[in-house]
Specification:
homodimer, about 400 residues, alpha/beta, Molybdenum Cofactor Biosythetic Enzyme, Chain A, Alpha-Beta Plaits, Maf protein, five-stranded mixed β-sheet, 17 strands, elongated
Chain lengths: ~400, ~400
C-alpha cells in the first residue's frame, strides 16, 4: 500500500532570515510518518504574500496533505490568512465562534484583546476553523482539489500541541493509512561513526524492509531504524545489540544519565560527584532525571586547589607533586567525595578544558577521571578534542559511560 | 540598490524524515544576508533523484544564487552529484585533483579510502571543484543560465567552514553587493514577550529603515535589529537601552554568565555557588566562560540535607524548622559557601524542580535564592513554571541575573 504524501510549509521572516532555526518541520515530519505518511519535502518562506501563494500552489502539486505553520498572529507581518484566501479564490470572513474562543482565552489570562486581535478570527470563506486550546490564534482547514491544507500557529509549543491534539487524529480518520511504521533509536558511544555505519548498514542489508539512518548526537551516535515489519525490525535490533555489545548503551528515550540513575537505584547505591574541568555539567545531567534526589547525595565543583583540599581531603603535597590534572589527584578526589558523603560511588574529573592553560606535557583536552567504588579506586586518562564546550560535554559522557559500564559489570 | 536573491536547498533523508532538525539553512541565511543578499526561501528534500532535480529547477527560477547542502558523501544514498549532472544535462566526470585531495585527507588521518570514496571526486562536466579543507567530500560550482549553484557537504561543521571560507569570499567578488546590513541583537530578561514587542516595535516605527524581530530564547527574549543605516540603528539601540533599562542585560554574543564573569573580574572578586534545585547548572554555565577559573572558586550541589549541613554549615535545626526549601535555608547556604570558600560572593538556590515533591504550601516551581555579599545576605522567592528542565533553566537565569544586577549596583 503506498503511503500518502504530506508536505510541510513553514512561514516566517525570522526563519528565512536565519534568526531562528525551525524545529516545527522536523516534529511534523516525525508525527506524520509515525501514522503512515511519507514526507515529500519542506519549504520555508518569509511573511510575503506572493511567496506564500506560490508555495501553497507548489506544495499542493506535490502532496495530498499540506501542513502550513506560521503567520496566523495578530500583527501586520502575519500574512498567511490573506495569502491563503487569495490562493483559494475566497474572501476573508470573520468567524464569530473563533472570536469568542479568543476572547475567552484573554479572559482566562485576565487580559484584554486589542483591536488587531480580531484578525485572528478571520478565515477564507468555506474554511473550517480548528480551535486552539494553547494560545490565541485558531487554525483552519481548507480542501482544494485533491489537497487538504491545515493551517497552524507557528509558536513551537502551540504548533506541537495543535498538531498532536487536532491534526493527527483528523488525518487518522480521513485517510486509510498503511500499517504504522515502527521506530527504534539505538544509542551508541565510544566507537567512530564510520564503524557504526559499517556495522549497521552491513547487518541491515539482508532486511530491505528496514530503513536505517545514523546521526551524530555529539559525542553519541544514534541509529534510527524503522519498518512496517516488526519482526524484521526486532531481528535487526537484536543483531545490533550483539554486534555493538557494550557500546550500545540505550534505546529511544534512555540517556546515559537515566541509565546510571536506574542502575544505582536497582542496587540501592548513592552517588557523589567531584568535578573540576566538567564544572558541574555531570551534576546537571544527573539532576535532569526526575527522582535523582533518591540516589544523588551531593556534588562539588572544586575549581581551586584549596577547595580540592578542604572539600575532598586531597593532600596539598599530592597537588604539588603531580599537579591538579593528574591520575593521582583524580583518584584522591573520587575517594574523598565518596568518603565524606558516605556513599557507595564517588566519580571525579580533572582536566584542561581550554582554550588556555595547556602545556606540552598537559595539553588542552587532557582529562583524568576517578571512580571510587566498594571494590577500590580506579583512574582513567583521555585526550579529548574540540573547544571548551565540547571538551566538557565529551568528558561528561566519558565519565557517565564509565560509571554505567561499572554498574553493569562490564569488564573493559 | 536591490539585493540579489539567494535560495537555500538542503538535501537529506534524515532531514525530511525529521530525525534531525536542519541548522545549516539558518546559518547560510545569516551569512548571506550579512554580505547583502536577500533570501528567497529554503527547501528541504530527501535523497531522491527526481526530488533533487525538481528542486534544483524550482530554486534556479527563484534566485541568482542557490546554496545546495548535503548528499555529497560516498554512500549509495548520496544522490546530489548524479541528480545535478542530469539536471545540468552533463556527464559525471572523475576529477583527478579532487581525488588527490581526498587521498591526502585520508593519509593525514592515517586511514585508507575505500573504493566508494572515489565517487566523491566525480562532478558534472564543466563544474568547478571547490576543495574541502575540513573533510573528504569536495564541493563544486556550476553556472546554469542566470543562476550560480554552489554544492556543499551537509555535515554542519564542514558546511559552516566551507561556506565561510570558500563561498562567501567568492560571492563577495562575483556580485556587486549593496552596503552591508548591520546586525545587532539585544538581550532582555524579566519582562514578557508582549511587553518587549510593544516597546521595541513602538520605538522602531519612526525608523522604517530598521528591521525588527523578536525571539524567545527561553527564558530570555532576544531582539534582532538590522539596517543598512548605521545611524538609525544606533538611535534605535540607544532608545531601547533607555526604555528597557536594567532588563536589557547584554548584546550580541554576551551571555548572563559572561557578563557576571566580567563584572566579577573587574572588581577582583570571587564567586562560590551552593546549588540545590538547579543541580549544578549554574556552575556549568559559569564554567562555560573561558577564564572562569580566575573568579570561580568552587561550587557545591547539596542535594541531601546532610550535605547542606556538612558542606555549608546549615544548622539541622534550621532545616527542621523551615524545611530545605525556605528563605532561611537559602540565606544560610549562600552565607555558608561564602564563608567556607573565603570569597566575596556566595550564591544559592533551593527549590522544588518537580515533577514530584510538591505540596500545597510548597508547590513544584517554588525556588528560594540566597545572595551573600560584603554588604550582607539577601534572599528572594520565585514561583516558576514548566517541567523539571525548564524550572532548572529558569532558576539559573534568575540567579545569574540577580547577581548581575547586584554587581552593576542596580537597585531592585
Amino acid at each position: 500500500m503506498t503511503r500518502p504524501k504530506a508536505f510541510i510549509l513553514l512561514i516566517g521572516n525570522e526563519l528565512v532570515r536565519g534568526s531562528v532555526a525551525d524545529i516545527n518541520g522536523s516534529l511534523a515530519a516525525r508525527e506524520l510518518r509515525r501514522i503512515g505518511f511519507q514526507i515529500a519535502g519542506f519549504e520555508i518562506v518569509g511573511d510575503d504574500d506572493q511567496a506564500i501563494e506560490r508555495a501553497l500552489r507548489a506544495s499542493g502539486e506535490r502532496a495530498e496533505v499540506v501542513i502550513v505553520g506560521g503567520g496566523l498572529g495578530p500583527t501586520d507581518d502575519d500574512r498567511t490568512r490573506g495569502a491563503a484566501a487569495r490562493f483559494f479564490g475566497r474572501e476573508l470572513v470573520f468567524n464569530a465562534e473563533a472570536w469568542e474562543n479568543i476572547e475567552d482565552w484573554f479572559q482566562n489570562l485576565k487580559r484584554k484583546p486589542v483591536p488587531d486581535d480580531r484578525r485572528q478570527a478571520e478565515f477564507p470563506a468555506g474554511a473550517e476553523m480548528i480551535p486552539n486550546r494553547h494560545g490565541t490564534a485558531p487554525g483552519f482547514f481548507f480542501r482544494q482539489a485533491q489537497t487538504r491544507y491545515y493551517f497552524l500557529q507557528g509558536v513551537p509549543r502551540e504548533f506541537s500541541a495543535f498538531l498532536q491534539e487536532e491534526i493527527i487524529p483528523r488525518l487518522r480518520k480521513e485517510f486509510s493509512l498503511p500499517s504504522p511504521q515502527i521506530f527504534r533509536t539505538l544509542k551508541v558511544f565510544g566507537i567512530s561513526e564510520g564503524r557504526v555505519g559499517a556495522i549497521i548498514f552491513g547487518l541491515a542489508r539482508a532486511f530491505p524492509q528496514v530503513t536505517v539512518g545514523t546521526r551524530f548526537y555529539f559525542p553519541e551516535i544514534w541509529i534510527d531504524l524503522e519498518s512496517e515489519d516488526g519482526e524484521a525490525l526486532e531481528t535487526v535490533v537484536s543483531r545490533a545489540r550483539s554486534d555493538f555489545a557494550s557500546h550500545l548503551f540505550g534505546e529511544n528515550d534512555e540517556t546515559l544519565e537515566s541509565l546510571v540513575g536506574m542502575l544505582l537505584a536497582e542496587k540501592g547505591w548513592k552517588l557523589a560527584l567531584a568535578e573540576s574541568c566538567t564544572g558541574g555539567l555531570i551534576a546537571h545531567r544527573i539532576t535532569e532525571v526526575p527522582g535523582s534526589s533518591n540516589y544523588f547525595e551531593r556534588g562539588v565543583v572544586t575549581y581551586s586547589n584549596p577547595s580540592k583540599t578542604e572539600l575532598l581531603g586531597v593532600a596539598p603535597d599530592l597537588l604539588k607533586k603531580f599537579g591538579a590534572v593528574s591520575a593521582e589527584v583524580a583518584g584522591a578526589m573520587a575517594e574523598g567525595v565518596k568518603k565524606n558523603s558516605k556513599v557507595e560511588i564517588g566519580l571525579s574529573t580533572t582536566g584542561i578544558a581550554g582554550p588556555t592553560g595547556g602545556s606540552p606535557e598537559k595539553p588542552v583536552g587532557l582529562v583524568y577521571f576517578g571512580l571510587a567504588t566498594p571494590e577500590g579506586v580506579f583512574t582513567r586518562k583521555e585526550l579529548l578534542f574540540g573547544g571548551r564546550d565540547r571538551i566538557k560535554i565529551f568528558a561528561s559522557a566519558v565519565a557517565l559511560d564509565w560509571l554505567r559500564r561499572y554498574l553493569q559489570g562490564i569488564d573493559d
